[in-house]
Amino acid sequence: MVLTRANRSDRIFRLLLLLLSVWASAAVQAAQPVITVIIDDMGNHGGWGEAALRIPGPVTYAFLPHTPHAVRLARAAHADGKEVMLHLPMQSHEGNRLGPGSLTLHMTEQAFQRTLDDNLAAVPHVQGINNHMGSLLTRHPGAMAWLMQGIGRHGPLYFVDSRTTLATVGEQVATEYQVPNARRDVFLDNNRDPAAIEHQFRQLVRQARRKGYAIGIGHPYPETSQVLTEQLSRLEALGVRLIPASEMIRHQRSVRTWHASSSPSPKVAKNSKQSPLSTCCEEPESK
After folding, report:
1. Is 76 in contact with 119 (CB distance < 8 Å)?
2. What is the pLDDT of residue 96?
3. How far apart are the first and last CA of the chain?
4. Which of 29, 36, 212, 219 has the fewest CB atoms within 10 Å, i.e. is most exposed?
């Protein structure tokens, strides 16, 4: 078949329209605020864990190592297309009981790395790590350096700092060791009252709308599962999108890269004052 000049022009025009449509769709998706919801403390309670796995959408689940239901529920989460993390117990400033597999400051480096290895082996399909408690250990650069070295030995794992203390150096050390990382923005259920959880979820959405993304951490409480099931079904109306933790880290990295390449070099501020947050109170432990 011989194409006439008119037919050729028409095909080129249609192709350009298709490319423009694809580009516009990608641009809209990229501009849409995104949230990640991580459910911590999975593995201790079978019934609560099963209910939490029924929360709709790409929720991320963080499993405590060596707990009775961790292996079964982690495999079920993975089979359902959900992302699995290791919820790594770390020493707290208050001396809270941590359970099996905890990392503490009195450990030798060998014991520290062996415990980390055992914990990773105890939970199948792990793609990343976040800290369980850890308000003491996460403020120590040496201990966090051991952690990031250990993560590096296990391939492409990421780290999410639960930020149980404002003094944490988790993000800083992870970045120094080139471990993909992000930070928690909102705790969803320190208060288990459904109205309080819903309020915290709205805070998560507001933060995402303001800066483009936000990470919320909750627990497999029945109240949390109920509220999240209701709220996540309304995401389209709220104008935000739910993504797993690994995608959130890639998204944040791309946003930072874009801002860095498109913004002029910042000038050094004179007479700058210390941020009030640097001396503020310690945040509550994630339990």
Report:
1. no
2. 83
3. 70
4. 29
Long-range Cβ contact pairs of 17-20 (< 8 A, separation 24 or more): none
The number of folded domains in the chain is 1
Residue with tokens 């919801």: 37
Q: In this structure, is residue 80 part of a structural domain?
A: yes
Distance CA 11, CA 4 (A): 11
* CATH number of the domain encompassing residue 230: 3.20.20.370
Confidence at residue 89, expressed as pLDDT on a 0 to 100 scale:
98
Sequence letter at residue 176: E
How confident is the model over 81-118, as pLDDT tens digits? Answer: 999 999 999 999 988 888 999 999 999 999 999 999 99
Task: Tell whether pTM > 0.90.
Answer: no
C-alpha R_g of the chain: 22
Residues 91 and 113: their CA atoms lie apart, in Å, by 15
HSE on the CB side for 157, CA within 13 Å? 25
